[in-house]
Design goal:
2 copies of one chain form a homodimer.
Chain A (H helix, E strand, L loop, with lengths): L4 E3 L3 E4 L14 E6 L15 E7 L9 E2 L10 E2 L12 E12 L2 E5 L8 E7 L2 H4 L8 H7 L2
Antiparallel strand pairs in A: 2-3, 2-9, 3-8, 4-7, 4-9, 5-6, 7-8
Chain lengths: 148, 148
């Protein structure tokens, strides 16, 4: 038995990027524009330096349960839940971003890897005491992916 | 104009906790049992020590846009997006957990703060190079919350 859940956008990403293959996400500054209904739910967020943005990815493409991470044939085929690929059963994106400024219903953020118009479904503050695990172990292919 | 998205559970949390006010989450070992359809999407996950589990929180309660974090009157009233409260417009939970073992369709994890039966909508590997920001700034009330 399957029971689905409905989520509504609380806002949208605004930037100049329309191609998911863009390579400058880390430095990119985007705006997250929140629906008027939720403006006061942002109060206090400006005291955090980093946030998680949870998005509804817009370019889910074809769903394969296993694949080469970023289609790189030199990396092993792994399950989608072992990757951060956009092609996943529920196309939810998790983006850790730096908060530069809050202006009323707008958040100015750096490092949001989502194209212009991406719907946002949640925003959570980043709390290093519970979110930062520097000693976490990853497989070798992840190191290869981050080498440049 | 609002456009909703439908997400289906990919699995469920199994543990002995039925009360969201439980206090021993950090040490609690839970099972995440994945739907048969997605078993192979877990392949390779066992090489990561930590994961993000994204859940559909089951006890959303009454939605207030602003509140005292954890109802503690000694902490300031802030917007829900500045908290990790369960009472949020889209009741998505983000849980960083330690992966102890994968047995086929089951993940044995430590530190999952979700009651028995909580639906899971996504699983992502934790990658410290992109997910760990030890220097992130938080407001004083967060430190008070973590004092014990």
């Amino acid at each position: 038995m399957k029971i689905g859940f409905n989520f509504n956008p609380i806002g949208y990403v605004k930037n100049d990027v329309h191609d998911a293959k863009f390579r400058g996400w880390k430095k990119l500054v985007s705006r997250v524009v929140i629906d008027d209904t939720y403006v006061e739910a942002l109060d206090g967020l400006e005291e955090f330096s980093h946030l998680f943005v949870i998005s509804r990815l817009r370019l889910p493409g074809k769903l394969l349960l296993k694949r080469h991470p970023r289609d790189r044939k030199d990396l092993p085929v792994v399950g989608v839940f072992a990757t951060r690929s956009q092609m996943r059963p529920n196309p939810l994106g998790l983006h850790l971003v730096q908060l530069l400024e809050r202006k009323q219903k707008e958040l100015l953020v750096r490092g949001l890897d989502a194209v212009d118009g991406t719907p946002v479904v949640d925003i959570k503050p980043y709390i290093p005491e519970q979110d930062a695990v520097t000693s976490a172990r990853v497989p070798d292919w992840v190191h290869k992916l981050h080498e440049r």
